[in-house]
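Lab meeting minutes (informal)
Scribe: AK
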Amino acid sequence: MMEMVVTSTPLYAWMNTLENISSPDNQTDEEYEDELANLRHSLNTMSLIVYCLAFVLGVLGNGVVIWVTGFKMKKTVNTVWFLNLAVADFLFTAFLPLSVTYTAMGFHWPFGKFMCKLNSTVSFLNMFASVYILVVISADRCVSVVWPVWAQNHRSVRKASCVSLGIWLLALVLSAPYFVFRDVGASYHDEDIVNCFNNFVFSDDYETVAVVELRAFRHQAMTITRFLLGFVVPFSVIVSCYAIIIHRLKRNRTLASHSGRTFKIIAAVITAFFLCWAPYHIFSLIEMVNHRSAEFSDTLDHVTTIGIPISTSLAFLNSCLNPLLYVFMGQDFKDKVRKSILKVLESAFTEEVSPSNTFTNSGITSRSKEKSFSDAEV
């Protein structure tokens, strides 16, 4: 049953990993058990605090964003993007009480197999949906800066809504394996405790070599796929888009002045996502490599023991950060104190009036707009 650490999603695998730490030679078994218990208690307490904080701030903050962008503001391409990002985060944080209960009960899952599957699926649905919405936002900003006239004529709320639907379908496909493989079973240490874990071979057989290898292979495949499609590829696209945007803005200061506020907000959201999710993916890879290695490293095991719960908590926090970023970067701090939440969020999400918008309002044709933009870049 020690192979369970391989079958567990890194979200909860650190609890099982604790059991694999070997006692140092200079410690008695009692001293080591006490140290292990204290470490487990500290990590559990930290996780509970973070989960509760993310739940309260995430549900309230994202709920307000959904209310404002969905019902109080005029529909624009920007509001469609941020509405979908808020829905993804709200959905995830709404399920956090399940994780809080699971952790508080010593990793006993009382909610049944279906909720075990659904809870894990929602977690990764949030991750994939969020990162690909950020990809689309970055691409949208890049097109708006590089080809402003084309963007002005072709960007629409309807197209943005269709793209958002496509993102949700893609995220659902990528997160579906977690629904398939998630399972519940009695803990190896206490039959009265039911764990929620990944059972990649739908079997309790941890002895047969072929079964163990298949389990390890599927675990490796899912970890690498999640790292590539949920992190490396999306952020490569995002970085490329922003490199192009920065290059163009340096050449055109007029365009830079019009794009400043939204550019900073989007850049902050993307940076927060990167900082919150990068450690999670890194520790997941370290854990996978260590358990696939012929020589198991106690040092790496200790690193993941501490790193996985911290990085997981950090990833959870990302779902409540975006509303705070919208508020604190939407306008100057003094104005935020005086204005209502609605006005602050409207300031954060309102489409800027680009040079092309100004020309359109003046009744100038597309041909004239192209000439004007060309002149502006000279």
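Next up, CB showed the second protein from the same session:
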Amino acid sequence: MPQTEITISLCMIVKNEESNIERCLDSAHNLVDEINIVDTGSTDRTKEIVKKYTDRIFDYAWNDDFASARNYAFSQATKDYILWLDADDELLEQDQKEFLTLKKTLDPVVDAVNMPYHLILDKHGKPICSLRRNRLVRRSMNFQWIGLVHEYLEVNGKVLISDCAVTHRGGPGELDRNLKIYESRLARGEVLSPRDLYYYANELIDHKMYNRAIEYYLKFLATGKGWVEDNISACGRLADCFEILHEQGNMFKYCFKSFEYDTPRAEFCCRLGFYFLQLEALDQAVFWYKLATEVELPIDSWGQVNYDCWTWLPHLQLCVCYDKLGKHELAYKHNELALKYRPEDSHILHNKRYLEGVLGLESEG
């Protein structure tokens, strides 16, 4: 007996998204069976644009609680599964095709589908930075959103890991909104959870309040209750703060502290390699860049990933180091490895021509 195709409700919360919402809905409306838009107070053309796609538009009085708004949006869904997007998200053409295949083949016993979320693309449309999100969930499970700010969807049961991606296309949004929500909570004497300590520190660093960001990252790590990926990210951001403040000793300290939480990540190896390269300490730079090419991304890592550090970048930097050391054959080898990831990169192609000249090789073009 053929499997019945699942039905999907798209649920979104929006406010003043006239510059984004049409692109988002254009990419998604043919993938879903129902569109529910919860508007939290738009004063622009957002609702007018949305009406071209659905009449299921619901007003919601904004109360500085993202989880509450998202839970309300989910409560409007009537189909088998719920897909959530933000207005500045988009499914690119290939991902639309993959999503339709997923929809046709999804086993209805699956409770949630986890999908990549591409935050930054390069000029060729390839992801530079991404993480993962539980993006499609079975409505009958009644999963709930948690957290006033930087909310997350708490899921359990059978989770399918998919390669179908959602791509972020917008800017940072209302720059001060989240910071003000956190500071209002602190002013009321509320105690922030470990997760909120981490995200408040992120808001502080985004606002260039580096010393205060350091204070809250350290409070977060001191709880010992953070998700491993957030712990690692906090170490990276602490290293950023200390580097900006010209405290190199502490920058090193938190690069190495990240290794306490998991195997070394390529992002930290590249950071250390770059530091030593700037000092012309080439052997040390080679050590760290070489390690970056050898470590493996944990298979269960759902944290933010900088793909450059896991692919072409350390090879390109090894090319630079080995060239300075007069080891041109090794420089050429690593440049070729970088070229496999970025065959049109002008800098890598320039290196190729230069090294072929040094080594007396005949260029292939």
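CB comment: The first strand starts at residue 8 and ends at 14.
No objections, moving on.
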